[in-house]
Amino acid sequence: MLSHLRTLNLLKRVYYLFHNLRFQILDEGLTMRISSRRGWALLRQHSVLLCVVVLAVLWAGVYLTFRQTLVSNQRDQVKNSVNLGLLFEETTLRTIGEVEKSLFYLRRNIEASLGKADYHLLVSRQDIISETIVQFAIIDATGIMRATSASKGPSKPIDLSDREHFRFHLGKETDSLFISRPVIGRASGKWSVQITRKFVDKDGAFGGVVVASLDPVHLANFFTAIDLGPKGAISLIGLDGVVRASGGGNNAGVLALGEDLSKTPLFDRMRNDSDGSFAYQTEQGDRRTITFRRVRGQPLIVASSFSQTAVEMDAYKTLSAHGSFAALLSIIIIAVSVRGAKDQLRLSFMQSRSRRSRQRALRSAEQLRLTLENITQGIILVRRDWTIPVINRRLIELLDLPEDWQRRPPRFDDLIQHLEGQGEFEIDPAPAGVMPAAHWMEPGTAPTQATYERRRPNGTVLEVRTTTLPGGGFVRTLTDITHRRRAQAEVDRIAREDVVTGLANRRAFHEVLERHGTATPYVLLYLDLDRFKVVNDTLGHPVGDALLRAVGSRILASVRDEDVAARLGGDEFAVLLTSYGTEDAGRAVAERLVRRLSQPYEVDGHQIIIGVSIGLAIGPRDGRNADDLLKASDMALYSAKAAGRGTYRVYVPSMDDEVREKRKLELDLRRALSNHELELHYQPFFDIATRTVLGFEALMRWRHPERGLVSPADFIPIAEETGLIGPIGAWALLQACHDALAWPAETSVAVNVSSVQFKTGDVYRDAVAALSASGLPAHRLELEITESTLMEQGDATVNVLRELRDLGISISMDDFGTGYSSLSYLRRFPLSKIKIDRSFVMDLENSPNVEVIIRSIIDIARTMEMKTTAEGVETPQQLELLARLGCHIGQGYLFSKPRPVTEITELMAAWMKPPAQAA
Q1: pLDDT digits (tens, 9 = 90+) for 462-515
Q2: Before 900, cis peptide (omega within 30)?
Q3: Of 351, 365, 522, 526, which has the fewest CB atoms closer than 10 Å, so is most exposed?
Q4: DSSP assignment letter at 753
Q5: Strand locations in 400-460, DSSP E?
C-alpha cells in the first residue's frame, strides 16, 4: 500500500506537468496561427512523448514498490527468526538443565547406595517424572538395562550395550553429558532423545549409565502458540547433523525427526559458523531462508526457517493489486493522451471544445485528489525551492499539523521549524548547529531513495520513505508502523523474560551483570526459597507458579526501580543492587527480603508460608566477572542454608575452605560404612512408676580414624544433604535389631528415622529387611520421627507409617512441643508415643508454666491412648514431678548416659529387677 501511494504521488506530479504543458502548446499554436497540418504534427509528437513518460514513471513506481516490499518483508522475517532462535535456545537449556538435575539425583543415590540401591524405586519416583521425560532408566557396566520407569514393576533386563548412549561413556575418564540421536526405546517403545551420564561403583570404576529419555516433541510443541512466520519451522540439530526435534509450519519445511543432515550442503553451512542466516531450496522446490545458532554450552544447533516463497507471495499479491490499478490508469492515460491530441487539434478551430477538455482534466485531477486523501499513508511533494504543492490529510493527521495547511501548504523549512517547536525531534534530534530541515532532507545531497524510522513524542513510530526527483525536490511518504514495532518488541521481550514471573531470565540477568563492569562497587543477592518444593508437591504446579509470581512482586516492591531482579530457574532468584557500594547497605536489603518473603501468602484460597535463604556478594571485590560473582554468592547461599535457612550470609574467602572441608568430610563418610567406623550407642528409657528398663534408644556415633569420635550434629546433616542418610539409616536399623536380640524378650529398641529417608521411600523396605534378617519381633522395634517429617511429607508419610504400624512396629514423635505442635498430627498419624522435649524438663523445677504445659501434653496423650516419654531427666526432683504429673517413661543422665553395646548387659544387670520382685 505504501508503494501504491508513492506511485500515485508521482502520477499526480506528472499529471500537473502534462496539464500545464498541454495548454502551453495550445497557446503557442493559437498565437502563431499555425496551419492545421503543422499543428497536428506538433500536438501528436508531444502527446506521444508525454504518454510514454507517464507510463514509464507509473510502471517504474509499481516495480520499485514491489522490490521494496519484498526486501522489507524478507528482512523483518529474518529478524523474527533470529529472536525465535534465541527463545528456543533458552527453552532447550532450561529443559536440559531440569533433566540434568534428575540425572545427578539418580547418580548420587546409586553411588551412595554402594551397589545396594533398589533401581526400580529410584527411576519410579514421582518427583523426577514429568511430561517431558518418556522414561528414566539405569544401565549397568555390561550394558544391561536394570530398571526403567516405563515398567510398573521390576523390568526385564534388556541388552543395550550396542546403543550409542551407552558406548559413548565406555573407557572415558571424564564426566560428560551425552545427548543421543532420536531413537525408539526398546523399553518405552517411543521416540526419544537419550540424555545420559555415567556413574561409578564403590571402587571408582565405571559402574554404568543413568538415562533420561527426552520426548523430542515437547521441545517443538512449545512454539505451537507462537507465530513462526510464513510456513515457519524450527528444529534442534546435533553437531553430528542429526535432527533431535522439529516442529511448526504445518509440516512445511519441517525436518524429519532423526534425519541425518551431516552430508548435506545445508548442514555444511551450519557446521562452520556459530550463528548465521542463509537461503536454500528444498527438494520440493520451496525456496526457504534458515537462521541458526549454536546452543550455549551444548553440542546442539537451533535452526528456524521460513518460506521465501510464502514471503514473496505477499509481495506478489501487492504487485498484482498495484499492477491492476496501474493497468487501469495506463488505459486511462492512453485514452486521455489520444483524446488530448484530438482536443488540441479541435481547439485550433473550436474554443468551446477547449473548455470541455479543460473540465475533463479537472475531473481527473479531483479523482486523483480523492484517491490521495483516502489512503492510509501520509504523502508530501516538495519542490526544489522547498515549496509544497501537494500534502494530503493523512500526513496532517500523523504529524498533528494545522488543518488549513492542506489547502495552503507552507514551505518545507517552515514545516520543519513548526515540528521542532512542538518538540517533534527531541527523541531523534539533529546534530548541534545543523538546521533540522537540512539534517532530515537537504536537496542535492540526499540519496535517490532513503528510508528511516522516527519515534514521535506521543510514542507513535513512523516509517519515513523519501524518493528524490530528477529535476530536484522529493516525494516523501509516512507510514504508522507502531503496531508492527510493538509486536517485534514483544517477541524480543519473550526471549529475555521469565515466562512465569515476568522478571528477567537467567540469560538477560547474566548479560546485565557482565555489562555492569568494575567501575563502582555493587551488591549481588542470590535467593533460594525454602520449602517451595512442598508447595509444588502438595498443591500442584499452578499454585506453585502463582506463588513464584507473588514472590517476584514482593522482591520488586523491596528494591528500587534501578535495581535488577531476575528468576534464574526453579525457586532461585537474584537481585543486582546497582549503586549500593557497601556491605551494610546490602545487608539491610537482604534482611528486608528475608522478612518480607517469609510473611504468609494467600494463593488460590491457600495460606502458604515459606522462607528464603540469601547469599550476598560484593562486586568487584568478590568477583570481577559475572560467573565469579555468581559463584561467590552461591557459596554464601550454601552457608546460609547450612546455618538453618531463613537467613542470609555474606561471602568471605574462608567459605571456600569450609566447602572443601565439608567435601572431605563427605568423602570420609562415604568410606565410613565399608570401613565399619559407624557404631551405635544405647541410652535406656525407664518405666517411671516401677523404675524398670523398657528399652534402649539407638544413637549414632562415628569413630573417625583421625578426628576421633565425631558428633552426629556434624555428620548427620551432611548425610541428609548428600543422600547418604539412606544407606546409613538402613545399616542403623539392621544393627539395632541384631543388638536387641541379646536383650530380654520384652526389651524394645528405638531408632531415629530422618525425614530424608521418607523422601526416598525406603523406610518401609529397610524396616522389613532389618526385621527379617535379624529375626527380631516387630513389636520390639520402635521408630522415632520428628514433627518436621510429618509436615514436609504429608500423605505419603501417613501411608508408610500405617503400613509399619500394621506390621506391629511402634511409632513415636520425638521432640514434641518444639516444632509445629499441631494436635492434628496426633489425630491423623498412627502414633503410639510422644516424647516431651528436654527443654521443657530442664525448666520443670523452676517454671510453673512449664509444669502446666507438660501436664497438658500428658493429658492429651492419655486421652488419645498414647504414652509419654520425658527426655533429659537429670535430677530426682524432676523424676518425682514427672511421676506426679502422670508421665509414663523417663530418659536421661539420671538413669544413664548413652553406652556402647558392649556395656548394655552390665547396665541391665544393675537396673533391671527380676520379674517376681517387679511384681
Answers
A1: 888 888 888 788 888 888 888 888 877 777 777 778 889 999 999 889 888 888
A2: no
A3: 351
A4: -
A5: 449-455
Largest CA distance in the chain: 158
CA dist list (Å): 23 to 17, 347, 365: 10, 10, 15
604 φψ region: left (φ > 0), alpha (ψ -120 to 50), beta (else): left
Q: Are 810 and 833 in contact (CB under 8 A)?
A: yes
Is 605:543 a contact under the CB 8 Å cutoff?
A: no
DSSP collapsed to 3 states, 822-844? CHHHHHHCCCCEEEECHHHHHCC
Rounded to whole angstroms, the Cα distance separating 342 from 650 reads 95
**Of 27-31, 229-233, 787-791, which range is least confident?**
27-31
Phi/psi for 742 (5° steps) reads -85, -5
- Of 569, 578, 601, 574, whose CA–CA distance to 590 is shortest? 574
Residue 544: phi and psi, rounded to 5, are -60, -40
Place of cell 507438660: 854
Cα 282 to Cα 856: distance, rounded to the nearest angstrom: 81
Question: Rounded distance, CA 179 to CA 185, Å?
Answer: 14
Query: Residues 905, 911, 917, 919: what is their CA dihedral angle, to the nearest 10 degrees?
Result: -100
Tell me the per-residue pLDDT of 82-113, one tens digit each, with 9 for 90 and over. 887 788 778 888 888 888 888 888 888 888 87
Say yes or no to pLDDT of 629 above 70: yes
Considering the chain, what is the average pLDDT of its residues?
80
Q: In what order do the strands lie in the sheet with 378-382?
A: 390-391, 378-382, 474-480, 461-468, 449-455
**If you count them, how many residues does the chain have?**
919
Nearest alpha carbon to residue 712 among 681, 670, 734, 735: 681
> What pLDDT, in 10s, does the model give residues 418-472?
888 887 777 666 555 555 555 555 444 444 557 778 788 888 888 888 888 887 8
Contact, 701 vs 680, CB < 8 A? yes
Q: Residue 539 in 3-state DSSP?
A: helix
**pLDDT 10s digits, 697-744:** 999 998 888 888 888 887 887 787 777 888 889 999 999 999 999 999
Residue whose C-alpha cell reads 514521535 in the numeric block: 456
Q: How far is CA 590 from CA 97, 201, 463, 601, 602, in A?
A: 28, 43, 47, 19, 23
Greater pLDDT, 653 or 887: 887
CA 623 to chain centre: 25
Helices (H) and strands (E) counted in the chain, each on its own, are 30, 33
Separation CA 854–CA 677 (nearest Å)? 39
3-state secondary structure of 547: helix
> Residue type at 592?
R
DSSP state letter for 779: G
Nearest to 187 by CA among 129, 140, 135, 142: 135
480-484 long-range contacts, CB within 8 A, separation 24+: 480/376, 480/398, 481/453, 484/76
List the grid coordinates of 682.
544405647
Rounded Cα gap, residues 894 and 884, in angstroms:
17
User: Is the model's pLDDT at 594 over the cut of 90?
Assistant: yes
Alpha-carbon distance 875 to 901, whole Å? 25
Residue 494: all three cell numbers together: 519473550
Instruction: Check if the beta carbon of residue 302 is closer than 8 Å to that of residue 92.
Output: yes
Yes or no: say if 149 and 119 are a contact pair by the CB < 8 Å rule.
no
- Contacts of 743 by beta carbon, 8 Å cutoff, 6+ apart: 696, 749, 904, 908
How far apart are the C-alpha atoms of 896 and 684, rounded to whole Å?
A: 7
Predicted structure pTM score: 0.43
Q: Give the up-direction half-sphere exposure of residue 451: CA atoms within 13 A in the CB hemisphere.
A: 10
Amino acid at 596: R
CA atoms in the 13 A half-sphere facing the CB of 219: 32
Q: List Cβ neighbours of 486 (8 Å cut-off, separation of 6 or more).
A: none
Distances in Å between the Cα of 242 and the Cα atoms of 127, 178, 215 are 31, 14, 16
